Fold:
Amino acid sequence: MTKTIRNRRLRYSVVIIAVIALVAVFVIRLVDIQVVQAADLNEQSKAKRSIPVTIYGTRGSIVDRNGTELADSVTRYNITTAPRLVKKFTGKLGGTRVKEVTVDTALAALAKASGGDVGTMQKNIAANPRSDFAYLVKGLDVKHYEAVMALGIPWIYKEQQASRVYPTAATTGNLTGFMGTDGAQAGLEYAYDKCLAGSNGSETYERGEDGVQLPGSTVTTKKAKDGGTLETTIDSDLQYMAQQTIASAAKELQAESATATVTSVKTGELLAVADYPTVDPNDVDATTDKGAYSSRALTATYEPGSTIKAAIAAALIDRGKSSPTDQAVVPYSRSFPWGGTIHDSEFHPTENLTLTGILRDSSNVGITELGSRLTAQQRYEYMQKFGLFEPESAIDYPGQPSMDYGTSPNWDQQTNINSMFGQGISTTAVQVASIFQTLANDGVRIPLHFVKGCETADGKTIDAPDVQGTRVVSANAATQVTDMLQSVVTGGTLVGMKPISGYNIAAKTGTAEVAEGSKGYGSQRITSVAGMAPAEDPQYVVTVTFTKPQANKWSSGAAPAFRTLMSQVLEKYRVAPSTTQARTYPSTW
Structure:
């Protein structure tokens, strides 16, 4: 009996000890879970049910002078899933009730509605089957997005973002530039990326075990901020006209490339900057000419040829070294002590020409004879004041040439002579336009520009260029050169161009030889026309240039495009016709 009691007590003790040990294990485990691992477990639990979502700040628009969008952001949708939740389901598929919808059936329906690829979807899901995130299809427009969501597949989710579109396409692609997978790639998109770019925000929402978002669970952790609106001076309608005009002419002339500019004389605003060929920012890969990714009018340098003679004539008059009727004996060619030789474009006997006649006939020999009355440094300084030899100060655009000529020309003897008729020096098409804007504006140069500024999301205007005008030559010198340039149209190198009825035009042609490295100058040419109208009170400046034309290598080949574009400008802006006869000076003596 005593032994039985003793055994019973022993069993009780063992049980009690076991219970105590078991309770101790539970207590320790509970402390470990609720105290030691509490933070980590909470985060893991939150990660399984709390879903982060990026809220994209909308990139700002680029607009023309009338508010027409040149670049805009539109809403696009990515369709995502949680691979661990992907499974067959029962219910409806696109409004049709079915007993059971397999994963393959759902993905096939999703691909049909979105235009996506089933194989890509399956691959993304299989990459990490236990994960909570994978892309199924990206970049859907509203129509395709709505079709996808109408399917009612329970394990798909949306991710909203902005996508870049260019409504005017290739018409302004040379200016707007474009976006790529790594952000802004060219043009205004790149130059003003800081202004245009929005900043992304974020929010989270809670999701149940079945993958469905819990109502009222969305929490915004950071608000998104939209980018600013970049306002340009470009007139998109005129830009289209300019693009079409030079494209047609370039093809007819069999030119390698072409540019055109239209400038408002009184404001320095560029209303059109056209290039051929150009890029469609909606389909960049379709552009095979990498040089078309930007604007050649802004970035490509060339020797301007005889258009520069207008600046030399203005400098001579401004310094009191010449006048419109100043006389010169002009042979066909001219030789120099160092062995250099220059000549005019066409043979002629020795002529008695005035400065007006020299501009009218575009005489290289004549302009160097009178131009030598200025020192090389003086001519250099005038060219610099006209806007040559440095990037346009009021234009922020990637790829503008530095054109570092230093503080003095440092020209050799031949370049010193050649520079007076636009050889041996480099300009851009916009810089040539700046020369003629200055002459048309009574000698006051307003920095050419095509951006007004950027209006931020909170209404502030930033990045406005400094467009304060500076006097380059006297009003008298500018007016006299403008009057002399009317002779180019009425009886000079543009005499073959059909007149623009009712308007006096002042213009200058250029036919520049193209350097071929160490070989010197070859047979290729760059032809151009730069001019203003109405000559008695100029309102607009138009320039056109054609690189390496084959069908007609003379500036006369560029004249029809100049006439067409100038006519379009005068008509579009309803410029009043001239009321006086063209003012000219004697060309010979």
